[in-house]
Specification:
single chain, nine-stranded mixed sheet, 16 strands, 41% helix
């Protein structure tokens, strides 16, 4: 199977995601992951489910023992999660695949909706499907993962609305800031691969200022170059008198758009470039035929104590609606090794985050 066939196949499945694409798997392959595209067909030969499974050797002792871990980012994708037979077949086959690959565990992270809205709000809606899937997972000895690699909750914007309605759905202050940016001379242009050299240090600067952890520069260069060249992502760059001051990288696939990376400098922040960037991202995604804009990430707990609260309020102002998913689930294939992994991995990750932050700091010009 090649990129075109795979992407066409998964684009037709509900809940499809850019992290399940062929291109994403090829980037991960540069960083030690082995892609294993897997498809389930119905009796008519049509694709009923698919999963881009990623496998890698477990560091240190696991590498010596030939042990692996398997991960299905934002998958598997099922035509119908309510189909208990199909669900059981997919979960069973993934377990068998994990055993064949000497996995300590396999992690899945499908966008199965648990509910919409903040749970404490009157208009919050719970989704019985999400509850049923979680119950089925628990009955099969899957467990909610302590390591949630992707965001469990997110904020979505309905792009089927007219541009006028999209603006009207924004909070009044957000709408004001969008227009203010234009009045203050902020202009947005569409970037390309030649802008990567500028985007990478700006992203590093943002991570240090806002205190979030990012990977090394080479990783983002690989992701952006791959997806820009494939026409599946584009950078939008806000400038003031030709000087780049902020940017977003928006990915598009299967009629959806995702805001995965955002960055800004300290200069001209009072001109609100980030608001105009998001408005242009929405407009361009809509023009490209996308029906949903995923703002990528919302708090696990909807309270001011959550580290994502400020970011969430910004996204909420754009007119987005909270959607809660079931999150990542692990199936321990080798329980003893899994227990050891879950105790050691957080310490290793903390060290890697500290090391990554130090490397980011040293890479920036003084």
């Amino acid at each position: 199977m090649d990129a075109q066939k795979w992407n066409k196949l998964i684009a037709a499945l509900p809940g499809t995601h850019v992290l399940q694409t062929w291109e994403w798997a090829q980037v991960k392959a540069r960083y030690g992951w082995k892609p294993m595209p897997t498809v389930w067909h119905d009796r008519q030969g049509e694709a009923a489910a698919a999963a881009m499974v990623l496998a890698r050797k477990v560091p240190v002792a696991g590498r010596l023992l030939g042990l692996t871990m398997l991960y299905v980012p934002k998958g598997p994708l099922l035509r119908d999660w309510d189909d208990a037979g199909l669900r059981g077949q997919v979960l069973g086959d993934l377990q068998a695949l994990a055993r064949r690959n000497r996995a300590i565990f396999i992690k899945i992270d499908p966008d199965v909706c648990l509910g919409a809205g903040i749970p404490s709000d009157r208009d919050a809606i719970e989704n019985p499907r999400g509850q049923a899937v979680m119950a089925d997972l628990m009955s099969r000895r899957w467990r909610f993962s302590e390591e949630q690699v992707q965001f469990k909750n997110t904020v979505l914007i309905d792009l089927t609305l007219t541009e006028k309605d999209l603006l009207m759905n924004m909070k009044q202050k957000t709408r004001y800031n969008v227009r203010l940016a234009g009045r203050k001379g902020v202009e947005v242009r569409v970037g390309n691969t030649s802008d990567i050299g500028m985007l990478a240090p700006m992203y590093a600067e943002t991570s240090l200022r806002d205190e979030f952890v990012i990977r090394d520069e080479g990783y983002y260069r690989a992701v952006w170059d791959t997806f820009f060249r494939a026409g599946m992502a584009e950078p939008l760059i806000a400038e003031v008198q030709g000087e780049p001051v902020a940017a977003v990288v928006v990915f598009r696939f299967g009629g959806k758009a995702w805001y995965l990376h955002g960055m800004s400098r300290d200069v001209h922040r009072e001109k609100m470039p980030n608001y105009l960037l998001q408005w242009e991202a929405m407009r361009r995604a809509k023009q490209a035929g996308c029906s949903v804009y995923d703002l990528w990430g919302a708090p696990d707990e909807f309270s001011e104590s959550d580290s994502l609260w400020g970011v969430y309020r910004f996204k909420e102002g754009l007119g987005g609606k909270v959607v809660r998913h079931i999150g990542a689930w692990d199936l321990p294939v080798r329980p003893v090794y899994y227990w050891l992994y879950t105790r050691i991995a957080p310490r290793v990750l903390d060290w890697m985050r500290w090391r990554g932050r130090s490397q980011t700091e040293s890479a920036l010009p003084t």
